[in-house]
Amino acid sequence: MAASLSLSVLLLSFVSLGVALPREAIFDAADVLSDSGFVSMSLTLEIVAETLLEQSPSATVFAPSDSAFKKSGQPSLDLLRFHFAPFPLPPPSLRLLTAGATIPTMLPGQSLTVTTSDRLISINNVRLTGSPIYDDGFLLVYGIERFFDPAFQLNRQRPGPDSNSSCSGRNHTASSSDSFDQAVQTLKSGGYSAVASFLGMQLSGVAEHGGITVFAPADEMVMNRLGDIGEYPAFFRRHVVPCRLLWNDLVDFGEGSELATFLEGFAINITRSGGVLTLNGVPVFFPDVFFNDRVVVHGVSDVLAPQENAVVHVDDEHNLFDPSEF
């Protein structure tokens, strides 16, 4: 099973993570909502804009109808956060998501779930308007007929018992599988050619038992941060975890939890900043870009660098990756 995205639009919003959405865009979106018959959400957007949107460089808002507000009353701030995703989701990207893919929200630790992924898209079993009511490339607003239920759950296959933080970076040997090739092809088509090429050459035999999780920075970020070719093996090793961890597994980890990687001595520290899950301080900007029975890929907004005072040891004798491949 796989979930893939065309991420070019998403990447633009994360080049400058500290830049907030302009107030003009928020007020423009509120005006369009009002003109489109979403008066209650229009007024609510203006009220919560400073709290929710002005701290984010981009967002997707799912706007319940006036009848939903009339039936449910004024929602709590937490319920409103559950209707905001901290990045833009244009229709082509939404249509590429398979049922079961998750979308993080501005409510810490809570995600939405795609329940259909054809022309008529639904999330948490609530249908979206076919086209955004408002779309300026950074802020998108979709209409929905009722509020999302934070308790909604979709039954799907979860990772096996080996998918946990106790996994260590041991060298596995297994034959290449079609499912692994799918991951490589998805990465190549989604703006991750550098990571895809590396995985295709170096990791086609390691996704066995508990599988692997790849935290993939986009090509632009990789090229900006890579130096000498001799650094490539260690660079990529620290972005791969020898466990299969879906988004729902990641958000279950407590603050300060650490994940071992294939780079000996390099760990990924899980924290949260403004409700956004971060890995060594780098936000996960789109989870579950790809997942199947062996491989999970999450998009991250930058490369994962060693944390301060961390000591990284590379055992050349048992190095999983061969520098001569590059």
UniProtKB/TrEMBL annotation:
Residues 1-20 form the signal peptide. This is FAS1 domain-containing protein. Residues 162-179 have a biased composition (Polar residues). Keywords: Signal. InterPro entries: FAS1_dom_sf, FAS1_domain, Fasciclin-like_AGP. Residues 26-152, 167-304 form the FAS1 domain. Belongs to the fasciclin-like AGP family. Residues 155-179 are annotated as: Disordered.
